Every structure is written in C-alpha cells, then in structure tokens.
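Need a sequence for this fold. Nothing fancy.
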C-alpha cells in the first residue's frame, strides 16, 4: 500500500514539476517573456530618444527662421535670389 502511494505521489510531483518548468505559464515561458520585455524596453528607450530629437528639431524649425533656411539650403539645395551657386566636383580619375 505504501509503495503504491509513494509511486502515485512521485508521479504527481513529477507532473507538477513538468507543468511548472515547461507548461504554459511555467518558468521557461516567463524567462522568455522577460527577455522579450527587456528587448522591447530597450527599443522603446531608443525610439523615445529619437522622438525627443525630432521634436526638438520640429520646434526649432517652427520658431527659428534661420534654422528653416539652413535646412532648405542643405537638404533641398535652395539658394536666394541674386546668389551665385558654385558646385565644385572632383576631377574624374583616368
């Protein structure tokens, strides 16, 4: 009787341990989810920093005419009336 009870208890403990380690919501899944959470948090921090920089640039462009002019000149190649634009290129190598 005690041997059968011991086997039943051991099999019950083994099934609980299996569920605890490899079952749904077990330690293994929790570790994987924590790893995913950390990588998503890192990505969110990087994107928040990028958003902060972009927000500062937008505010600067809205408030400062010189920043807007600088952006138009560098990104769009715009020039004022009466200005002369010189483009210097390297000589082609033969």
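Here you go.
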């Amino acid at each position: 009787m005690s041997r059968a009870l011991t086997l039943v208890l051991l099999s019950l403990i083994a099934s609980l341990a299996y569920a605890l380690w490899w079952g749904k919501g077990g330690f293994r899944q929790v570790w994987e989810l924590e790893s995913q959470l950390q990588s998503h948090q890192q990505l969110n921090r990087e994107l928040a920093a990028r958003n902060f920089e972009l927000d500062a640039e937008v505010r600067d462009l809205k408030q400062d005419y010189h920043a807007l002019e600088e952006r138009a000149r560098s990104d769009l190649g715009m020039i004022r009336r009466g200005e002369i634009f010189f483009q210097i290129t390297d000589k082609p190598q033969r």
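For context: The two ends are 97 Å apart (CA to CA).
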